[in-house]
Amino acid sequence: MSGIAIMTSGGDAAGMNPAIKAAVDHARQLGMNPYVVYDGLEGLIDGKIKEATRELTNDMIYRGGTLLRSSRSKRFFDYEFRKQAYEHLKKRNIDKLIIMGGDGSFRALNDFFNDFEVPFAGIPATIDNDIAGTDYCLGVDTAQNVILDCIDSVRDTARSHHRAFVIETMGRDCGYLAMTTALCSAADICIVPEIPYDLESIYKRLQPVINEEGSCIIAVVAEGTRVAQYLTRWLTERAGMDTRLTVLGHVQRGGSPTARDRLMGTRFATRAVEALNNGDINQIMVYHDGQYGYASLDSVAGQQYSVNQDIINLCRELSC
Amino acid sequence: MSGIAIMTSGGDAAGMNPAIKAAVDHARQLGMNPYVVYDGLEGLIDGKIKEATRELTNDMIYRGGTLLRSSRSKRFFDYEFRKQAYEHLKKRNIDKLIIMGGDGSFRALNDFFNDFEVPFAGIPATIDNDIAGTDYCLGVDTAQNVILDCIDSVRDTARSHHRAFVIETMGRDCGYLAMTTALCSAADICIVPEIPYDLESIYKRLQPVINEEGSCIIAVVAEGTRVAQYLTRWLTERAGMDTRLTVLGHVQRGGSPTARDRLMGTRFATRAVEALNNGDINQIMVYHDGQYGYASLDSVAGQQYSVNQDIINLCRELSC
Amino acid sequence: MSGIAIMTSGGDAAGMNPAIKAAVDHARQLGMNPYVVYDGLEGLIDGKIKEATRELTNDMIYRGGTLLRSSRSKRFFDYEFRKQAYEHLKKRNIDKLIIMGGDGSFRALNDFFNDFEVPFAGIPATIDNDIAGTDYCLGVDTAQNVILDCIDSVRDTARSHHRAFVIETMGRDCGYLAMTTALCSAADICIVPEIPYDLESIYKRLQPVINEEGSCIIAVVAEGTRVAQYLTRWLTERAGMDTRLTVLGHVQRGGSPTARDRLMGTRFATRAVEALNNGDINQIMVYHDGQYGYASLDSVAGQQYSVNQDIINLCRELSC
Amino acid sequence: MSGIAIMTSGGDAAGMNPAIKAAVDHARQLGMNPYVVYDGLEGLIDGKIKEATRELTNDMIYRGGTLLRSSRSKRFFDYEFRKQAYEHLKKRNIDKLIIMGGDGSFRALNDFFNDFEVPFAGIPATIDNDIAGTDYCLGVDTAQNVILDCIDSVRDTARSHHRAFVIETMGRDCGYLAMTTALCSAADICIVPEIPYDLESIYKRLQPVINEEGSCIIAVVAEGTRVAQYLTRWLTERAGMDTRLTVLGHVQRGGSPTARDRLMGTRFATRAVEALNNGDINQIMVYHDGQYGYASLDSVAGQQYSVNQDIINLCRELSC
């Protein structure tokens, strides 16, 4: 019987666990032998591979992070270690791989295919939502809702004291999380890498709010802009408001996956199993214009992701 | 200055409040005078119309239900009452309307337009997600997440006692909520109007689960099938499991809107204001194949909504 | 080395898992050999006993229900089955037991002690909070917060439609859950076994609310009163309000334990291990007047529990 | 008719809003005229006083922070400003005050009484739980649950990557929040002002955990110790684990109040109104050894608060 192994790689994201479960269940239904690899590509090298039992996937549907654990692997760039990984698979008759993560992880398995002809399917999973070719990556919806809960909490306090709060969200090169949560929380300011900002024009726009009794100011800032601390001082000094900074950090990654992340995870994973079963090899699962589909590695990894223009336009008003 | 009035109609749905806020804010930006109508079409007849102040919309972004309240109106079918409604608008120079609700509400405003030429824009809002022409209606994502939280809770108890639970979700003619939450919660059984079910084959499929130590069975059933009570007895008698029924009821409607409902609400409402501002009258805002667009009343109200075929296929395995 | 076995019995309650973890950890620290029994007294009879590994208790701190599962056992009343249970313990050198549940479970282990001299410690755990001698039973705080979330959700909908809602909470003979959540949610009506109610005087009190625009009525009713359906009809007919009934059911039991249930569980369990270690046998852990202590079985099981009089007085205003 | 004014002061805390509502409602029932003061003592000086309408308190039961807003006032130390405040009260016939906050706020109203004989009642409200004479201050339970949610989220990520996380909670001189949430979340390390810590012995204790596959380390640190950054580096270098720091910040203050904070708020406020009605003036409401009672200002403000010794003992194991 043909074996299929499922693994997670790179930063963890809510929705990975439901996707693992769906992949295991669907593989079994199609008559494959499902395995899991612990610790991502590092674990593949070290042979941390187990048969996927029902017990293993029992509670996965509602657990955050990844129960298979994850890693970033330098060793996998080295042919010797890839060879070692291949031996572990061969021994168990595993001839198909599913990997969840970002484009670096997909590339790694593509190199692996070029060496040993083990085909793979890739599932985009990163809370930054910055993978080209797909409108959605696993983990984004959960992260957005966690951030919103935090902003709603902070707003209670901000209102109680007529204060300003600067909230720093994750997002190195991509302001998707910051933009969407700024819109969702009716924030007053949003600063992201995609949009130039103008503090003086922000000041003019917000002056009525600053002077209004019982008001507060909420600014959402993407980590990658590195302006959170500066903006905090600026709001204190220029706008004259008592201002606090909250860096959300890793709280954003975790938590029980939302309905959307569970459903997307289930559907991506089911399709990944089917792709491999039908001989559609080395494809990345994507969700684009409301449709599920496959994309080639090149179309995903060779492109710059750009946020939907409408979202950028809506946020532009919050940057000036 | 041109006035625009915003109202909610029919069953309430999370996401209505963020949409009201976005409509009011955007109308003001475009130089219109924003008003709100309380109690839907009933309130329109009775002149429950107020200028929309900043204070009114302050906290709307995170509040469930609709702060404008809603109703179903029989009087509005009567020309005399529609005339009365029109007088209230005319007196305030309101010459545009935005309504959130289902196709009945859109039709009502279409009749109103035929009488008095007050154009409208419609925003689909119903947790049943059963409006043709749009893939998404406001309130669905929040409802899904509330249902999931309930099923996750019930599963804790089900596991603790090796029990079966039947969960009845809302959904009269449409099993969308039941199907998606069954998939999201890894339910064992799903019974909806769209899919014929076969209890004996369900029994055969689940026999290993029933006999497994520490297992439980979760069945999600759409209200419209009216089989919740029957299934509860059947599971007790035929499957021999201690089985309980939970009817979720109106808990599903409420709660603070999720990120998705806030964002969709904001975008539908912004576009509704723009449509009216650009002279695109009597359009329904839709989200289809990942794109926002407009649809005519006929294409929305004259059609039978059908759930995405992939979702039906995935659920078919849970119905037999 | 002396063995100690931990089990859960009767209805499941949030807080059981954190208590199991704390008991296992503390027993190990004190040099005992910790075991767990699956499926309560039924499992004890059938020898479903395992050594408690670190892996087993790893995630228990945030899981709802009981991962050891629970049961109600008729067989345990029979000496032959108790003997069988004893053999399972003897074989493993287990000479101490910790049981979480209600007074029936404590009694059962007391009988067991009379037969075989295996001492036990009892931890009160039931969402009804109806065990005499202790002000708090595990699971209550989580249940209260789950109920509150539901009522807050329902209130959104109630306000949106000027409706009344009747919410039935768990509680057979004891209205504690209904009373506390009625107070916490600013309900308008509360009907419990402990307080006589007078619908006509309720009607008079609520008349201004009924007539007020944008108001709603929330009634919280304990299951044991069996008046939920009647009250729903009465509110519809006498008060003339569109009224809906929501039976919360088993949703109330589950969910991740709150801080209070985790902390109480940890402290009850730590003390239970210490009691047995110090030779204080067959004691029930209690929390009374802000102090942790022990109570004898007779003082717990032979007494009628009564709700704090202040709470009853505050609720009296909601019953007339 | 006698007037009573309610205000909030110092840092905001969940539970303030439900307490305001209960005070207003109960005052009205006892025939007093309820008022609210906005912006604490600053607002009292500036006459920001309104009659408390039903509409004002409608949604207070589930709102976080304080809808009356709060402040710290230097001006109130000055007799002239106190006199000005008194004139505002006199004009409205307000002869009783209820204040929620910490001991500084209680002292301020005591000085005010010495000047103008306006009696007050104090309700302890601070998430630090550091007011002597009472076992509970409003806001603590909500803060604990918010912190727990964050730690549960972070643990998902920590497990997924075999990482350590340092979580800094609020608490300047008092480690109550850090200690209780460390226990509730099964943290591995807890560092608070009350307990000396020993990193080398922590290292020895945790070595097996560090080496265990799939493990993670969670450290909870009170803000007041100022060791969060140092501990993060130490865990990275000495323990060799990839370690991240999360400073929870103001997220901890907010959020919808839990059942416990709503119930305690309701009961403190009801009793505060009764105290003033019965002529028990200038009392602080306390909850001690499971009983509600009054304490004099001196017994509250002149004493050092100390955390329950049992909690300290349980945490001592996490500090070495």
Automatic annotation (TrEMBL), chains A, B, C, D:
Q: GO: which molecular function terms?
A: 6-phosphofructokinase activity; AMP binding; ATP binding; fructose-6-phosphate binding; identical protein binding; metal ion binding; monosaccharide binding
E.C. number(s) listed in UniProt: 2.7.1.11
Phosphofructokinase domain ranges (all copies)? 4-276
Record has Acyltransferase as a keyword: no
Pathway(s) the chain acts in = Carbohydrate degradation; glycolysis; D-glyceraldehyde 3-phosphate and glycerone phosphate from D-glucose: step 3/4
Q: What cofactor requirement does the entry state?
A: Mg(2+)
Can you list the GO cellular component terms from the UniProt entry?
Answer: 6-phosphofructokinase complex
Catalyzed reaction equations: beta-D-fructose 6-phosphate + ATP = beta-D-fructose 1,6-bisphosphate + ADP + H(+)
Superkingdom in the source lineage: Bacteria
What processes in GO biological process is this protein linked to? canonical glycolysis; fructose 1,6-bisphosphate metabolic process; fructose 6-phosphate metabolic process
Top-level EC class: transferase
Primary residence: cytoplasm
Q: Where does the record say this protein resides?
A: Cytoplasm
Q: Where is the signal peptide?
A: none
Q: What protein family does this chain belong to? A: Belongs to the phosphofructokinase type A (PFKA) family.
* PANTHER family for this protein: ATP-DEPENDENT 6-PHOSPHOFRUCTOKINASE (PTHR13697:SF4), PHOSPHOFRUCTOKINASE (PTHR13697)
Q: What is this protein called?
A: 6-phosphofructokinase
> Can you name the source organism?
Akkermansia muciniphila (strain ATCC BAA-835 / DSM 22959 / JCM 33894 / BCRC 81048 / CCUG 64013 / CIP 107961 / Muc)
